[in-house]
Amino acid sequence: MKKQRFRTIVLSDIHLGTASSKANEATDFLKKNHCDVLILNGDIIDGWQLRKYGSWQKKHTAFFRAVLKKMDKENTKVIYIRGNHDDFLDQIVPLLVGRNFQFRRDYVLRSGNKKFFITHGDVFDSVTSKMKWLAHLGDIGYTFLLWLNKLYNRYRTWRGFPYYSLSQQIKQKVKAAVNYVSDFEEKLAELAKSRNCDGIICGHIHQASIREIDGITYMNSGDWVETMSALTEDYEGNWQLQFYNEDMQRKPDKEVEEKVSKKPELLRRVAASF
Fold first, then answer.
1. Residue 238 contacts residue 142 (beta carbons within 8 Å)
2. Domain residue spans in the chain?
3. Helices H, strands E: what count in the chain?
4. Rounded to 5 degrees, what are φ and ψ at 194?
5. DSSP string for residues in 198-212
6. In CATH, what number does 4-262 get?
7. Which of 110, 135, 174, 247 is the most exposed place for a label (fewest CB within 10 A)?
8. Using one digit for the tens of pLDDT, what is the confidence trace for 207-252?
């Protein structure tokens, strides 16, 4: 299979070290796509769960092997942005490792004649920054919801029904979550404007989206826990959301792809640490 070629690929919120991480799919996505620049935009490793009840598996190591192979074989430049779940990187950022790997708190990317400010997004999350104990509580709740969702979909598969995201349905019905996402997006757009940038690229809320906010391009790469999405830039400076779909894996429903930018996130004022 011939690799697709992109100038830039942005992945975030893979949460390696957790049972819900779609590490195999993320690795497969990397293997099938070439890029000059790979941006790992936070929460790639889930340090929170690894310190408690998570576990590191071979498939998690395989992801980083794929990253290193891209650096070696394709001369890919890798930029790892610190997220809230990989806050252990606070000890070392900023750090340049060799020619093509760097750890950063944030980054400015030039795309054509535009500039994009890249940050994980937790900088505007008061729950994560000021009430970490509550964020950890929310993380436990979200992990339980993903576990319940997995059991429910095993039953649906047995009955011959398509995949159903219980968490996505809950996300759509919580008013506080709708308000949080709206505030989050607007604040990030303001941040880009304050940095004299044309757009913002983030993750954190597991809400894949590309939209315009007051003249600022807001882009969120989504996650590799449920959505399995990434942002890609071609060599003309055009950006797209890519959704992983492989014949033996669940394919995102077309309606999900069309409406993904409009879906709210689950009680993010409490579970802001996703």
1. no
2. 4-262
3. 8, 12
4. -70, -25
5. SEEEE-SS---EEEE
6. 3.60.21.10
7. 247
8. 899 999 999 999 999 999 988 999 999 999 999 999 997 543 444 4
